[in-house]
Amino acid sequence: MGMGVPNGLAKIHTHVEEKGGRTTAPGTPGRTTTPGTPGRTTAPGTPGRGTAPGTPMPTVTDICIDDSVPTVRAKTLDELHSLQRKRSTPNTPRDAANKVFSLSEEERLRMQLQSISASLASLTRETGPKVVRGDPERKTDGAEKKFEHAKSHYPLQPNISDSALKFTHIMYNLSPAELYEQAIKYEKGSFITSTGALATLSGAKTGRSPRDKRVVKDELNDDELWWGKGSPNIEMDEHTFLVNRERAVDYLNSLEKVFVNDQFLNWDLENRIRVRIISARAYHSLFMSNMCIRPTPEELENFGTPDFTIYNAGQFPCNRYTHYMTSSTSIDINLQRKEMVILGTQYAGEMKKGLFSVMHYLMPKRGVLSVHSGCNMGKDGDVALFFGLSGTGKTTLSTDPNRYLIGDDEHCWSDNGVSNIEGGCYAKCIDLAQEKEPDIWNAIKFGTVLENVVFDEHTREVYYVDRSVTENTRACYPIEHIPNAKIPCVGPHAKNVILLACDAFGVLPPVSKLTLPQTMYHFISGYTALIAGTEDGILEPQATFSACFGAAFIMLHPTRYAAMLAERMRRHGATGWLVNTGWSGGSYGVGQRMKLSYTRKIIDAIHNGSLLNAKYEETPVFKLQIPDYVEGVPSHILHPENTWSDAQAYKETLEKLAALFKKNFENFSDYKIGNDNRLTQEILEAGPL
């Protein structure tokens, strides 16, 4: 009898042969023997002892032996580790005529390194730095290529320094997994959370520093850009920019390695911009990998010279003795050189918003409107734009599970329709809850950057209510993390234009329909409350006006953008709406914040068109049209005066806010739009009485 098989499991077949009723090891005819003992079966160390007489030999189906696989082909551990990683090979690049490029892989890599070396070139030395692809911690293998020097565009005398004698390792367009490894290993304060996101810290700065942002003023943009009172554009001269650029480049070149991202802005292929981001932190590289449009391997092979370059040396301060510097932080934009320099702040949002400012300059020159808005699209192709500053609910309301997300923050409106500028989302996550914002909650997984959050040191679960580091906690993730994101992120022309205002005074209605002049008036005004944490030094909400709902980022006069918006709305029949996501029943500190569930019902009614069929009543002072009914919203809160316990206090507060609107608009009333002042007058008459 053969050996029994427990639990009725199938017998395991092996590689041994069966011959003449006996089991033999390969190469040993007739008997089963241990090595070195011919002709008998012996136990190890017991010579001469064999199978007892009469004991049947087990058959092949009764034997369970190790199914070993061949050993690895590597001869050393380093060689074994090199087999673990395989380089992906992109398809052969082709040009517009579908002709195969004749350049070899080595030649393309050489040109790529030459381009990066040129980007890092000092303006006081003849050549760029020596650069090499790969992690300096890894031993050089055959895949690592070096490029010694790139000629500068500026034929100056050679000036040899220590940094010119070393190689700078280029961490080029690393994957999220590679950037995780770099951050965890080398950047203190980097951790993996329980959902797989990368939690990191942005240093002393946990918000933007708008007072430290500078734009080079020259003969070409003196009359073109918006300067002076109310403008975000604080001027600096070319020389000071070059001083800061040199400081940033010298710092980056002194490092053993730098991270380089080559990516795109704008999903509209006709108006796409190539950007290069050079930074010192894996956190910054992953952040921008998420926020910009990620090129395919084929697009990367044919990337060419970037249209704009960022030098992020945020770990290194600027020289406060330098002209125009007011702190150790400086964010400088040079439109003619197509460069941006960051010193003295590690807050990653400076890169995102700096590029947005650049798009606010480049796109209108092409006849394309750039806007600070969220954007989504219904299943029938109806597109809605959501305008609003941080904290107004722009990201939350544009991320709707019942609609396709085109983008949450920055868009263009061209003759082709609307398009997202970015490749990711940057959502506030203070007080984030799964039941309130499920799409954003579920998007926080591997690949997401969590800025300045607090988490359990053991389980790594994030405490989204914890404000120990900052109010301005953020989640940065690729737009593909949203299940209903529309890829590519483009859509037809907008049907609804929704202006979101966080009214700290509590006197604006939850929703009102706007005429075209009213839309322009409130778009230029950009009234909201500056929510705590979105900028440095802001600890509690403050009533504020921000032109075009994004004055910190615009380059041209606000009325230029307003005129472009009105022209597109008129041409494509879009309707304007003002939605208050702020306070009801009193001002901030007395009333309550509008319930998100009510605001969602209002937005749903705008999308499905039911609000167009409602009956409207005009309010005093602001002359806003208020609907008599919105499904799912208590009718009494549609009229804000009904929610105030003190009618006289409501009236006084309403008149106070109207006066603030009028005073703010004095900055724009003298600007001429078109050949006459007719449009300007229409906008002024659309304001409060």
Automatic annotation (TrEMBL):
Spans annotated as Disordered: 1-56
Q: Which reaction does it catalyse?
A: oxaloacetate + ATP = phosphoenolpyruvate + ADP + CO2
UniProt pathway annotation: Carbohydrate biosynthesis; gluconeogenesis
Q: Which Gene3D superfamilies match?
A: 3.90.228.20, Phosphoenolpyruvate Carboxykinase, domain 1, Phosphoenolpyruvate Carboxykinase, domain 2
Q: Which organism is it from?
A: Ceratopteris richardii (Triangle waterfern)
Q: What is this protein called?
A: phosphoenolpyruvate carboxykinase (ATP)
| A single Gene Ontology CC term | cytosol
What InterPro entries is this protein classified in?
PEP_carboxykinase_ATP, PEP_carboxykinase_C, PEP_carboxykinase_N, PEPCK_ATP_CS
From its record, what is one biological process in GO terms? gluconeogenesis
